[in-house]
Specification:
Blueprint lengths: L1 H12 L3 H8 L3 H8 L8 H8 L6 H5 L15 H12 L4 H23 L20
Helix pairs in contact: 2-4, 4-7
Length: about 140
């Protein structure tokens, strides 16, 4: 399913596998394996890197029917502007913000799935570790 959604979004954007691989910073062969469902478990980081140039997110790639809608009631206050400005000044790119946002969303999505199906026997795991990858 992940591979089919990536391929569909890629084709809608008019990207070749090579172009998307370059934009996402993943190897062409690995992207091809994902699209052909030969690699069914790409990392969240890889999925975030692929989702960003496709104007998508990890949840959609994992099977959510629709892209999440923006809550228009939430506005950025001065503190948010300062945090974002500092991050940009320190070298964070739009892609880095998108990857971080997608990582957080995927963790929330995963947590919600565990809460919805408590009979699955899966225990909710928590972690205080956040991995942030910033390309130079």
């Amino acid at each position: 399913m992940i591979g089919e959604r990536i391929k569909s979004l890629r084709e809608k954007k008019g990207y070749s596998i090579t172009k998307l691989a370059d934009l996402a910073g993943v190897s062409k062969s690995y992207l091809s394996y994902i699209e052909r469902n030969m690699q069914n478990n790409p990392s969240l980081l890889v999925m975030a890197k692929i989702a960003a140039p496709l104007d998508s997110n990890i949840e959609y790639l994992l099977g959510e029917e629709h892209l999440p809608k923006l809550n228009h009631e939430e506005m950025l206050d001065e503190e948010w502007h300062s945090i974002i400005k500092d991050a940009v000044d320190e070298g964070m790119s739009k892609g880095d913000f998108q990857a971080l946002k997608d990582l957080i969303r995927s963790n929330m999505w995963k947590d919600n799935r565990l809460e919805v199906n408590p009979q699955s026997g899966n225990k909710k795991k928590t972690s205080n570790i956040i991995i942030l990858h910033i390309d130079n």
